[in-house]
Design goal:
The complex is a heterodimer. By secondary structure, chain A is mainly beta. Chain B is an all-beta fold. Classes of the chains: A mainly beta, B mainly beta.
Chain lengths: ~110, ~110
């Protein structure tokens, strides 16, 4: 599983709690992305970052926050404002500033207790 | 924005038969169409992609066709094998855009 590492694999959130999902890549890719995957739905973009210290909202950013302090790392925080956080979260990266040829991590399954 | 529809949602075929998955898109400006395969419990992986300047692309047992006029594209898998069993996602976008719009996925089961 080289390239992009997501942790933890499983995560449980209590009501009112913020949780952070980790995503690290050693591919020297500039762009990184967070997607949410729900059963029966396609992948939906939460946030993306094309360069360090810069990130943009995707289609479903409400209730989430990110940071990009290092090229290798793009953590996602699921805040208490996200009322339906149970989903499979996928991090991805690619070399340039386009969305082609995404490399995905192995995902984090977030569940609410 | 772009809207991608994918059919069927589930598909079962006998080993050795062909499988076809179809997608339509709404934005005529889209010019890049990748297909991702996600095996159970694993990450999605790019298996083939096509650009709008070609109508068909093949890679061994898989092929993708694109009809720009009708705004639809299809994935064809020939001589299916059990290891082809997975969820397949189509996607569409404009090169240089920041988002990749995914279909809802097709769960392919190849029956030995």
């Amino acid at each position: 599983d080289g390239g992009i590492t997501q942790s933890p694999k499983y995560l449980f959130r209590k009501e009112g709690q913020n949780v952070t999902l980790s995503c690290e890549q050693n591919l020297n890719h500039d762009a990184m992305y967070w997607y949410r995957q729900d059963p029966g739905q396609g992948l939906r973009l939460i946030y993306y970052s094309q360069i360090v210290n810069d990130f943009q909202k995707g289609d479903i950013a409400e209730g989430y926050s990110v940071s990009r302090e290092k090229k290798e790392s793009f953590p996602l925080t699921v805040t208490s404002a996200q009322k339906n956080p149970t989903a499979f979260y996928l991090c991805a990266s690619n070399p340039g500033n386009t969305n082609e040829k995404l490399f995905f991590g192995s995902g984090t399954q977030l569940s609410v207790l | 924005g772009e809207n991608v529809e994918q059919h069927p949602s589930t598909l079962s075929v006998q080993e050795g038969d062909s499988a076809v998955i179809k997608c339509t898109y709404s934005d005529s400006a889209s010019n890049y169409f990748p297909w991702y395969k996600q095996e159970l419990g694993k990450r999605p992986q790019l298996i083939i992609d096509i650009r709008s300047n070609v109508g068909e692309k093949k890679d061994q047992r898989i092929a993708v066709t694109l009809n720009k006029t009708a705004k639809h594209f299809s994935l064809h898998i020939t001589e299916t094998q059990p290891e082809d069993s997975a969820v397949y996602f189509c996607a569409a976008t404009l090169t240089g855009a920041n988002n990749l719009f995914f279909g809802t996925g097709t769960r392919l089961t190849v029956i030995p």
